[in-house]
Amino acid sequence: NNSIQRLCKESKVSAFQVFKMLVHLDVKTAELTRLHKMCFSSLTHLQILSLTELQIEKISEIAFNGLLHVEILNISNNIITHLEDNLFALRKSLKVLDITKNSLYLI
Question: Burial of 69 by CB count in 10 Å (0-12 exposed, 13-18 middle, 19+ buried)?
């Protein structure tokens, strides 16, 4: 368990600017409830993003903008109720999307 409650501020600046070459990010078991817009925009080389066992309820429609090479996106084991229409638009590299064990009623 960790006590992360906010990964990104609601701003135009990515929280991960110093980690531009990161290819795998795994955040697990925290009290993170929202993914704000452009949160991961500087992680242009990221291939695997795992955000599991958090408390994510809402994901901004543009939270994943800038993730040009993500092949695996795992947002399972959260409390997400719906996914925005364009959340995964233009993610041609995406091969695996795990949304299991959420409270989804609208996709």
Answer: middle
Locate 17 and state its tokens.
């600017």
Q: Please say whether the beta carbons of 88 and 65 come within 8 A.
A: no
Q: Helix, strand or coil for residue 86?
A: coil
C-alpha to C-alpha distance for 39 and 2, rounded to whole angstroms? 19
Coil, strand or helix: which one is 77? coil
pLDDT digit string, tens, across residues 61-104 = 888 888 889 999 999 999 999 998 888 776 789 999 999 999 99
15 against 58, higher pLDDT: 58
Amino acid at 21: M
pTM: 0.83
Sole residue written with tokens 């084991």: 77
Question: Which distant-in-sequence residues (6+ apart) come within 8 Å of 90 by Cβ?
Answer: none
CB-CB contact of 35 with 5 (8 Å): no
